[in-house]
Specification:
With 139 residues, this protein is mainly beta. The chain has one domain: Immunoglobulin-like (Sandwich), CATH 2.60.40. The chain is 12% helix and 50% strand. It contains one helix and nine strands; from the N terminus they run H-E-E-E-E-E-E-E-E-E. The longest helix is centred in the N-terminal third of the chain and has 17 residues. The chain is rod-shaped and about 85 Å long. The chain starts with a helix and ends in a 17-residue tail after the last strand. The C terminus is likely disordered.
């Protein structure tokens, strides 16, 4: 009987030790809005916690603003933060979308959805909307 109890306790201990418990996984953005001057860049961070997979990043209008990356493989074990640069091309507003394409937590929970950053591109200081005037040399 004593050997049976020891055997049973050993089996239970092995089973309890082999269970992997992961913290909740998530993907979040450091900002919900950005203001960028024409010709300049601004950055936001994609924070990855206990998850891995493919994320797609895009601008709603690439004539106004572009992003420096479009498809990213993320793995919070390797790198928990991914920087995304947004470059302003001309004045206007765009939405940068971060789409969770094939992302899961380490315990197998699928993460899906789209997160967005509202981006406003403003004219660089000192720039003018008027074209340069043609001047003729004086006689």
């Amino acid at each position: 009987m004593k050997k049976g109890k020891i055997f049973l306790l050993t089996i239970i201990s092995i089973l309890l030790l082999s269970i992997n418990v992961y913290a909740e996984g998530s993907i979040s953005l450091s900002k919900t809005s950005l203001t960028v001057k024409e010709g300049q860049k601004a950055t936001f961070i994609i924070n990855v916690k206990n998850a891995a997979g493919v994320i797609e990043v895009s601008s709603s209008d690439t004539s106004i603003a572009t992003v420096d990356t479009s498809k990213i493989f993320v793995d919070s074990y390797e790198k928990g933060q991914i920087s995304v640069n947004v470059t302003g091309k001309k004045a206007g507003a765009v939405t940068v979308s971060v789409v969770l394409k094939d992302v899961a937590t380490y315990d197998g929970e699928v993460l899906s959805g789209t997160k967005t950053v509202a981006v406003e591109i403003v004219k660089a200081s000192g720039s003018s909307t008027k074209p340069a005037e043609n001047t003729k040399p004086q006689d």
